[in-house]
Structures are given as C-alpha cells and as structure tokens.
Fold each of these.
Amino acid sequence: MTFINPAAAKMIDWPVTELVGKSMHTVLHHSHVDGSPYPREDCPIYAALKDGSTHRVISDVFWRKDGTSFPVEYISTPMKDEDGTLIGAVVTFQDISQRRWAEKILEQANEDLEQKIQERTQKLQRANQQLRELSEMRSRFITMVCHEFRNPLNNITLSVSSLKRYDTHLSLAEKAGYLSSINANVERMTQIIDDILVIGRIEAKVLEVNRTKVDVVAFCRRLLEEGEFIRQSDPIKLICPSHSIITELDERLLYSILGNLLANAIRYTHASGAITLSLRKWKQILIIKVQDEGIGIALKDRKYLFEPFHRGCNTSNIPGTGLGLSIVKQFVDLLGGNIHVSSRINKGTTFTVRLPMFNNSKNNISASTS
C-alpha cells in the first residue's frame, strides 16, 4: 500500500503510518469469513492488477488489526500512467454492517410473516376440514335418522292400519301383538333420540360424573337378567375370578358402556355364536372384556369406529344408528379409562375397557396399560 486515507485506516483499526508499504491482502483480506485462508491469487483486489479491469465485490469481509472482521462492499479499480501502463490499483470500500443488520431484520420479518401466513393457512385448512366433516356428519345424520325412523314408523303405520281395518276380526292376542309391535318401535325411536341427546350433552360438556360404590360383578349379573340381553339359544356368559369387585364408578355411565357393547355383540352375532362378558381387576384397574363370535370389523373401519354415525362396511343390512360406540368411547374417557378393540372378519370382536376403580387411581391408567 502506498496511500490510505484516515477513514479507511480507522475502519480497520490500524495507524496510517504502519500500513504504508504493507500488502493490502495480508493486512485486511487474508481470510474468508469462516477464518479459512484466502489465497492471494484468488483475491479480487489484485485481479485488477492482472487483467486491468475493474472488479466490484458486493459482499465480503475485511479484517481489523485485533482479528475481528466486518462485512464490506468494495471496488478495485486499475491505475494506468499516461502511456496506458498498469501501475497499480485503487481500492474503495464501505462497511455494510448496518445494511446487513437491516437485511437480517427484513429477512427475519419475512420469515415471521411467512410463518404467520403458514399458520393462518393451516388454521383455515383445519377450519375448512372441520366444516367439511360437519357437513358430512350432518348429511350422515339426516340419512341415518330418515333410515332408522322409516322402518319403525312403517311398522307402526302397518299395525295401526291393521287394528283399524280388522278390529272386529282380531282376537285379543292378535291385538296385543300389534300393540306390542307399536310399543317396541316407539321404544326404538326413543332410544335413537336419547342417544342423539347424550352425544349433544357430551359435546356441550354438561354431563357430570357421579361416582358411587358399585359391586361390578353384582351389577353385571343384574344387567344380564334384563330382557334385551337374554339370549335363548346361547346365553351371554359372565366370567370373573372374584365373587365381588368393589369400585367407585358412575352406574349410569357404566350401564351405558356395557349395554352398548353387549347390544352390539348381540346385534352382530348369529344366534349360535358365543358372547362372553369377563371382569377382572389388576392393581386399581378394572378390566372389562366383551367378546363375541360375530361378523367382525373391517380394518378400514377401525379408524372411524368411535366417530358418531359411522357404521361398518359390512353392517348395511343390520339396523343401527352408529352412535353406540361413540357414546361408549366418550363415557370411558369421562371415567378416565381407555378402550381397545381387536377383531377378525367373520371370526369375532373383542372390546377391552380399562377403568380406574377409584377416582384417585385415574392417573395410573396410562402407565398400567401402555
């Protein structure tokens, strides 16, 4: 270097007197930004001395005397004498730290904006998906209600019509049969409405859990004596190694869980197929299994098994609302438990429910059944 102005010397923290006679590359351009050596033959500053052309670099680093670096933009311009002979080069540079800082702030702002746009887009996509699911659920609900109400209403209409038309020709037993049919169909429609109302109460989070002491073994014996769970050809078997299992559960929720699982087992199992209800306890966990030899659940249906109004692909010719298992799952959740299903087509299905026997054992479920 033959000349350096005070402003440039101050930028690189060198006294002007110490710079004259030194190699510019050695003083301030000896290394890349990562600290690796910068070969002199690759240096754009000296390229002007080789080819006589102006070289502009918009992003590089120069080094101070104390070993720290700073970002620069510089131009290396060749100098020629009157005869056009190349005699040197003039290097002008500026510290672009502020520009880099501004660029970094702008880049961060762009990244933040892009992140917010992505988050907002994802929220909109989720909202749209939820709207589509709600629309599909509404369509399924309307279809289900129309389908499930049509048959009982037709049966009621037929029974009423027969009673009106043949009143004087029917025996008391025949009239009682028609009235019994009307009553059964009304009860079926009432059950559908009750299930829909239960789903609504669960989703509105207004359903309370009222725990009381329950002997689950005695509870299940009484349950299996009810008419809808009595099978004449092959009664449901209750299996339990204990004569009594005392728990603190909500009887209403427990009745709905067991009632729906047993009703499904009966509905989807041939009269000759076996159904068992087994109970056992492990530590403070009540384990309930409902096992049948029915039609089974297709693998593709298991993902949606506990969603409201979903029905299996092999159940189209069997009456049902698609609400029972959804209610079971949500009641099991309310009691702090979990439910698992295993099934094989035309071989049968097993539902396993695990419930904390006492309210203070709720936290043990996940660790005990993982």
Amino acid sequence: MINLESVEALLTKVPGVKAAKIVQEGDEIVEIHIVADSEKSPKQVVRDVETVLLASTGLKIDRRIVSVAQIKGDIQKARILPYSLSSLKVEEKDSRTIKVSVVIEHGNEEFYGDATGPKTSRNVPIIIGNAILNALADIHDYAISIDDTIEVYLAGKKFVITHLTKEYNASEESIIGAAEIENDRFKAIAESVLDAFRRI
C-alpha cells in the first residue's frame, strides 16, 4: 500500500511544483492534481511527475490522469494562467496563398506557430486554426484537427464558433470554442480556436 502523503510530499520536491494531491480509489490512483509555477510547460511538468513516480515508487501511470494548474507568484495569490493570443499576423505570400503566424503566451513562455495555404474564404479559418494548433503542438499528446467554423448572431452580437476534434487512444472527442467578433474577424477566429483548446 502506497503512503499517499509521502508521495505527495515527494512530488512537491519536483522543481516548479508547489502542491500535489493524489486521488485514489481502492488501490488505484485515478487522479493527480498538480499546482506548479509557469517556468515549465504543463506537458513537461506531467513528464517530470511521471518520471519521479516511476523512479521512486515503481508506479507507471497514465499521464492523462495528471492535471496541471499553473500560477504566477505566491501560491496564496494563485490564479490559473490561460494561454493567450499575443500576436496574429496574416500575410499574402502570392495571389493564391496566405501565411498566418501567431504567438501564444502562457506565463513567461511564448509559443510560435504558423500555417500556410490557399486563401479561399472557406480555408482561411482553417489556416488560422492550424497556426494556433501548431504553436501548441509540443505541450500535449493528442491528435487535434480544426474541422469547421461558423459565424452566428446571439443577443445582437456576432460570434465565431469553432469545432475541434481531439483523438487519443483511438477515441475521438468534439470540442467547441467561441469568441465575439469585434473589430478583427481573423483575431476572433484565432481566439475561438484558443478557447476550444483551453477546454482540452
């Protein structure tokens, strides 16, 4: 039988980890909740947790049971840091093609992504979405596609709604994101994709 308190204490010694909570059902660990600073990506924190557990206790876990909330500063003033769009650039490569470049911020980290493709009206949202997903590709283990976007009016305001598909271990899940269209339609598309990504 594993002493959960000692394992939780061990996990808090992982660089960047501020707190850890393990949930067990019977003899099986079903959830591991980690509060960490923003120095590492969530994916790296999960890998560190996985490695420490395997090396110290012999436990091999499914990394999907590990959730990471990242904070800035003192844990007493903790807030979950969102992935936020800091830059979006759409440029014409030629008369038929556009390139989209984005920068995503998360704490002290920046993630860069781009995508290129035909500049048809139907395809431009897909290119923007792929730039967002390419920027964040290294922080998760899923296969993610942007499948469709639609613009709708709600309560007198115009929104972009985006559908992503996430595949993992031969199982697919639909994820929806939304953003209000204010002055920049392209930015709203990017924000809707990012909104969906935050729900993964």
